[in-house]
Each structure stands twice: as structure tokens, then as C-alpha cells.
Amino acid sequence: MRLRELEVELPGLPSELDGLRIVHLSDFHFGVPSPGIGATWRAALWARERRPDLVAVTGDLLTHPRGEPMLRRLVRVLPQPTVVVLGNHDLAISRDPQARRSDLRELEPAMLLRDEGRFVELRGRRLWIAGADPRLIVRGRSRLDPNSLAREAEFSILLCHYPRVLDQLEPGRFDLVLSGHMHDGQITLPYPGGKLLLAHPSAPYSRGVYRNPAATMHVSAGLGTTFVPFRFAARPEATELTLRPG
Fold it and tell me: 146 with 188: CB under 8 angstroms?
């Protein structure tokens, strides 16, 4: 697995937030046998050692409810504050035959955000952190305008499991978007200069940093697996983002 440190430039970042560190984790898929279980625990211990300003977890925590006790133990290992959103597997919105609905309502001591947000003070600044429920997009149609989750703030972050939320955002609503879902393809075919994502061959956002006029987004490659307990040329990843002025 990859434990990655990445600097992200953000236009208009307040000077007090220069160097703010966010550990971004995603896609644990607890509750089914997977090598991702070990990768997720390693990532959690790494996050604890790094002592970041914030931990953000962007969904697909559970494929099956039997993984909930392990998930709650892991959350207690993570440094606080930790903010979390659910993914489609948490609500069994998936073709994966193993998926069973968990539908968590709280995940103490982490903040579980479901179409809501919280003001969090970091380095003397008030940040607005919002989280979209995975039912934001159902059958390709939006159920909720993600722009409605924005608030006036010095700096704002949106957590949404689905990377394509970036295409729905209006400029000035959010500064940073954190997403997951893609597993960097999970099983891919490398070729010179790139690789083919077998599950999502035409996906515009698979892993890394993307920018458009509305916001900057980081998509996590995730830690677990779905359908089959196997990844190829798509390493599990935990990422520490260090924010820098653009």
C-alpha cells in the first residue's frame, strides 16, 4: 500500500491555514474478507502517528453490517477531529452481491455528516465542513443540490463519496472537495503513459487532484475492495494533504 504525502495549492487559502494537514482516507469496505482490512488499520495507525489537523473519511465504510464493531474500534484509533460521510455500499446502493445496508446514524467520536455541516476551528480559523449523503445522486439524478450545503466561511470543505459532485458545484461554494468511490479502478491494465480502469473505463476522476472553476478536489484511491478481494495496478492508499496558498 502507499502512504502518500501531497501538497495541494488552493487559491485564497488564509495565511493561518498555510501548512494545514488533512489525512484523507476512504473505502474501507469492512464486513467482508479483504486485504483492505489490514491496509485500513495500517492507515489508521499512520494517521495517528502523523497527528494531522483533520482526518476526513469519504465513505464506503461498511459493505456488510457485521463490520461495524471493527469500524467503531478503528474510529477510536483515529486522531480527532475526524469527519466522515457514508458511501453507496453503506446503504447497499450497489450491484455488489455482498452489500447489505448499514445506514449508520452516528460514529462517535467522529462527526458523521449526512447532508449537513459543522463549523470547526482549526489554527484559529473557522472552517465549514459539509458532508453529502450518498443518496445525493440516485440513478444518475441529483436528489439534493450540493451547493445548498455551503455556508459563508473563511474556508470550506465538502466531503462527498462521489467525485462527479465536482461537476455540480458553483464557484465560491467550496474551496476543497474530498471524494473516494473509484478505488483507482481496483483492477486496471497499465499501458505506456496510463492505464485502463476496467470497472470505469471512461471515468473522468479516478485518483489524485483535479481542478475546475468551482473548486479543487482530491480523490482517494481508497483502501478496501469490492466484488472481489483483489486489486491490480491500483494500490490502496492513505494520503496526507498539506494545504498551500495557490
Answer: no
Is 202 exposed, middle or buried (CB count within 10 Å of its CB: 0-12, 13-18, 19+)? exposed
* Stated length of the chain: 246
The secondary structure of residue 31, as a DSSP letter, is: T
Distance, in Å, from the CA atom of 30 to the CA atom of 65, rounded to the nearest integer, reads 8
- Extended beta strands in the chain, E state: 2-10, 21-25, 54-58, 82-85, 111-112, 116-122, 125-131, 137-138, 141-142, 155-159, 176-179, 188-191, 194-197, 208-211, 216-219, 237-245
Q: Give me the residues paired with residue 25 across strands.
A: 57
pLDDT per residue as tens digits for the range 45-74: 999 999 999 999 999 999 999 999 999 999
**Pairing relation of β-strands 137-138 and 216-219?**
unpaired
- Cβ neighbors of 49 (< 8 A, separation 6 or more) are none
**3-class secondary-structure state, position 158:** strand
β-strands 155-159, 176-179 pairing? parallel
pTM for this model (two decimals): 0.95
Domains and CATH numbers, the chain: 2-245 (3.60.21.10)
Alpha-carbon span 66 to 226, nearest angstrom: 16
